[in-house]
Amino acid sequence: xxxxSLVALAASLASVQSEGLDIDAVNPKIVxxxxxxxGFILDxxxxxxxxxxxxxxxxPFDEIVRCNIGNPQALGQxxxxxxxxVLSNVVLPKTPRWGVSKQVRERxxxxxxxxxxxxxxxxxxxxxxxxxxxxAKFISDRDGIAxxxxxIFLTDGASAGVRHLTQLLVSGPQDGVLAPAPQxxxxxxxxxxxxxxxxxxxxxxxxxxxxxxxxxxxxxDDVVARGATPKMLVIINPGxxxxxxxxxxxxEAIVEFVASKPGLVLMADEVYQENVYGDAPAFISFKKVVxxxxxxxxxxxxxxxxxxxxxxxGLRGGYFELTNVSxxxxxxxxxxxxxxxxxxxxxxxxxxxxVNPPVDGRELKAYEDEKAAKLxxxxxxxxxxxxxxxxxxxxxxxxxxxxxxxxPSITLPDAALAAAGAAGxxxxxxxxxxxxxxxxxxxxxxxxxxxxxxxxxxxxxxxPPEDQITAVTKRLAGFxxxxxxxxxxPAGEL
Amino acid sequence: xxxxSLVALAASLASVQSEGLDIDAVNPKIVxxxxxxxGFILDxxxxxxxxxxxxxxxxPFDEIVRCNIGNPQALGQxxxxxxxxVLSNVVLPKTPRWGVSKQVRERxxxxxxxxxxxxxxxxxxxxxxxxxxxxAKFISDRDGIAxxxxxIFLTDGASAGVRHLTQLLVSGPQDGVLAPAPQxxxxxxxxxxxxxxxxxxxxxxxxxxxxxxxxxxxxxDDVVARGATPKMLVIINPGxxxxxxxxxxxxEAIVEFVASKPGLVLMADEVYQENVYGDAPAFISFKKVVxxxxxxxxxxxxxxxxxxxxxxxGLRGGYFELTNVSxxxxxxxxxxxxxxxxxxxxxxxxxxxxVNPPVDGRELKAYEDEKAAKLxxxxxxxxxxxxxxxxxxxxxxxxxxxxxxxxPSITLPDAALAAAGAAGxxxxxxxxxxxxxxxxxxxxxxxxxxxxxxxxxxxxxxxPPEDQITAVTKRLAGFxxxxxxxxxxPAGEL
Lengths: 494, 494
Known about the structure:
- 2 copies of one chain form a homodimer.
- In chain A, helix 3 (40-52) runs parallel beside helix 16, helix 4 packs antiparallel against helix 13 (345-355) and helix 7 (157-169) runs parallel beside helix 8.
- The longest helix of chain A is centred in the last third of the chain and has 30 residues, at 361-390.
- The model of chain A has no long low-confidence stretch (mean pLDDT 93).
- Helix content of chain A is 45%, strand content 12%.
- Chain A is globular.
- In chain A, strand 3 (175-181), helix 8 (186-193) and strand 4 form a beta-alpha-beta unit.
- Chain A is an alpha/beta fold.
């Protein structure tokens, strides 16, 4: 009987039309969205990596070095020691009595006790109260201004917070998003996915990648001319991919601009706040500037455990803080967070450990040494790579101020432009592809971030380990010279 | 100079209009969306909890018991031992040489090595390959059908996967979502937030909460009549909040229905697949049914570490598997995942540990004992609470088959309905509020899940610890009788 009914069913199925799920069914806004940091160059790198894993291969290098993404531990940076010891213990039902220092035990016990049921239970949707208090204390110590734990949301990395805010504010083409060009493409991808109208304001490469208010105003007007009202202004400070650390005057001018546009929310991507190098302008939070100016503009500030010196990308911990946002709006954000129940609890704890490091003793000393060593190494690497790039023929690289990236401009010979066109690629994508295929280095073409028409760039991290950075830089320089030479030669072939 | 310019700026700011972010700016679809599992009853519970924390209080109970949410560890369920030992070690730079069993060390080492840079690095956006292979093996062992790691995506809990699929398929009112009533309100919230047209099909309480195809067809036609085309059919099996475990014939009928509607994707919420009790129909995956019927309908199956016997809600680990979905569509899902970089790595590892438990020795024995003890305890508690509820005057509770919930129907006296109306509440919300205020028990009103007009229900978990379940049940029964009595009495007051 069973068999018969199955046969009958199968026969009836054969006559109907369902043939699986095809691309025609997909939300066109998802198809349209682009996210270059993990785009086709990385796909190609994966293919090459598969070749490299074979016993023999024809590539002139033996490993892929991923400078496409700010993923420090993937390139050998050690995880933060104290934080990992606490995490190792907080997942146990009890912290062991032996072999664990007092400070580690106390922190692990406190976090475990801060959620009814421990780390395996859903936390409050907005995030564990104890950790939101730790974040508030960190912010108020940083800015010298009171911070409210109820204005803080813990999220799965900063990206999830940006998604929540975009979803909250953007529901169709009438809603505009202003983002820098170049920009970390999360913002353009989100604006596209949520069907908003994207306006790009150009950063000024000739002025250390400043964010000129005149450009922001032009982008604002452009969005208005296209029939939309800008609802979010994204400022990434320190900049990604530019590394610019904005001085106070620039921040004030931006706040003043936002204040003149009721309904505009300042989205302050401040995830690189620990990554400011040399004599660049020190990091100042937008919250502090808004407070000092007695402004009432709405600000959402994002932070993350993935950057700074912790580099805990895989744990997906982050937070955002709301300033000048009404209670009713906050309730909507809590509902949004509730639908996914809560952000991952271990990522939340990683946030707590980032903002509230060891307080004294041996652990504090070790923590401070670790932090200083990692940040100064990042700075040395930034300078070395920037200097080497800037020295190349046809390459110009702004002196790095912060973050984890360099965004050099490249001038390519006409023959290279023509070859790129013939390959159906933007010139910088063509360059990045050739770089990968010649050296194993993965960088992201500038076209993935936005750039002034007719200019070409790429983004590279300076995250390879310090004892390899010179070799990496040399590989890049060697490629670059050969690339130029091949396109200057009469029968130029690479 | 600086001071002067600040004063001038502050003066100019005072004349403009930005006054923070208000509710008018919010996406109306976010405002419209509802998610009752963490709704006003829980807000009230938090207020009461604050009172209970005081030295003295007037409440006739001393603790809040959260039966509103499937959060087992919050109610005392122990975390899975082996999995936590591996997690405790995988966050360390190296697994210690001593004090760790061979199996724990091998698993921790394997996971650490599976991501370049370890757990602090971003993984592949789709999820760690090793773990996707573990999931594929689990599925193929379960179903006796090959599974492809490339068809599997690791996600921050099952909820994130549901969000990705909804975002992929629903972009406006032209796109329909069919979800059960009652349903876990994630689906209606997602449909609303992504601006889709929601159609509800009614489950049949008189037939163990079956999912009749006739009702699904009616909902389909209703959505079409409203000008939309249904793109997703959500089936929750075992059911939430109903607990129903669907027999093979029911699954076949649903597959046949989907096959007759090209473009319709079967969203198979199978997160309770381990939670089937007694002589209820054993869990059968939709993938297996589709395979057995030689059907080509698109299916997305969701699973999670939050349920089953692991109950690892806080770690936010989950996956979905695609069946009959084109490569192009898969690429869009990879892009969606990429924009948030990757799901949290420790949650991914928790998925690996769920699908690939210890293989032999002492650890296997301990694991099997732990699993059997937890699942049989859940079953005993389900039966005890269901029996007690069903015995109450005016309460009818379907015999539990699976999941972690009961969804009893309650018949309320007219005077109670009137009192609810006077309080501006749905009758079951009124009932749940009074229950909370009388006993400290938190349940969710049926109106938050959808129910047939004129019927009233509530959802309760049966997760309080076994040694407390009788007391909890008695509290509930005591309240219920007093509630009814108060509304039957001439001058009925509660």
